[in-house]
Amino acid sequence: MKGWKAALLVPVLAAQLNAAKVPLYELRGKVEPAPGRAVVAVYGVNSPFNVRTIANPEGEFRFKRLEAGPYKVYVFAPGVGEAEQTVAVGPSTADKKRRVRVTIPFDSPEISALKEAHTTSVRELSIPAPAKLDFVEARRLLGRKDVEGAIRSLQRAIERAPQFVAAWNELGTIAYQTKRYQDAERYFRKAFELDPQGFAPAVNLGGVLLNLSRPTEALKYNTYALGLRPTDPLANAQMGINYFLLGELDRAIPFLKEAKRRDPAHFSYPQLTLADIYLRKGEIQAAIAELQDFLARHPDSEQAVKIREQLRSLGAK
Fold it and tell me: Which string of DSSP letters, residue by residue, matches the chain?
């Protein structure tokens, strides 16, 4: 028994030491103008992660112990509206104390227009309390990076409440982020079947179909999602990517530009698709400008080294 305990201790200590080597950052932000009581959530873009807090009366918030990478910051003020913005967290965007600062604008007409969309459906009212608690627990576990535990909690939630759209959608999101695209499609389809007027199931299904190289099928869902939220960065980005994959380059450009205008650092990286389009059209300087803009906003991304090499090959100064 003593030998077994000693053998077990070695990998545990090794894992702790490896975890200690990962640089962690703090995200400090402010919602301007302050909307009153607001929930601020941070979602991992490349891996399942979800934490949330309440902004103070001045609209200030912070999140500690974030690993480097892109995050979606989402703000929801009950009765006021919502907003979101992509933030790149890493050594190039942080100060010497590893703090990244961000301001979330909260004064556009689209924000106030969205408050009417947050009505409670009969389906949501029918979800039993235990299923809701499972969903809350799943998000807590994602904040601790316990992905498997979160999946089990979500599966319990849909067993208790098969009509729980948010739980199906969350399962799809986790599957998507872990590159299990066929599972993600199945979960998103179920969510869309339950809520055919929901933005999240539509835009997520359209996105995963693009990853599955089925742009013709994806087009109807991306078109529908854009119709529901014409100003949403993700809906515009996916529409642009969709047209790009269909070979309709000129139709793709306006949507990608709109996505970039709405969220310049958006996690879909519209600059890269725009650069690809401009290269195919022989517009080298326009492509260089997009690649340089990408590097300015995502200097620590996995693609950064490759993009810098591409810029050198294009003769960028």
Answer: -HHHHHHHHHHHHHHHHHHHHS-EEEEEEEEES--SS-EEEEEESSS--EEEEE--TTSEEEEEEEESEEEEEEEEETTTEEEEEEEEESTTTS-TTSEEEEEEE---HHHHHHGGG----HHHHTS-HHHHHHHHHHHHHHHTT-HHHHHHHHHHHHHH-TT-HHHHHHHHHHHHHTT-HHHHHHHHHHHHHH-TT-HHHHHHHHHHHHHTT-HHHHHHHHHHHHHH-TT-HHHHHHHHHHHHHTT-HHHHHHHHHHHHHH-TT-TT-HHHHHHHHHHHTT-HHHHHHHHHHHHHH-TTSTTHHHHHHHHHHTT--
Q: Is residue 303 domain-resident? A: no
157-210 pLDDT, tens digit per residue, is: 999 999 999 999 999 999 999 999 999 999 999 999 999 999 999 999 999 999
Domain with residue 89: its CATH number is: 2.60.40.10
Q: Is residue 137 part of a domain?
A: no
Domain residues for the domain of 63 are 20-117
Q: Does residue 205 form part of some domain? A: no
Q: Is residue 238 included in any domain, yes or no?
A: no
Domain count, the chain: 1
The per-residue pLDDT for range 261-299, each reduced to its tens digit, is 999 999 999 999 999 999 999 999 999 999 999 999 999
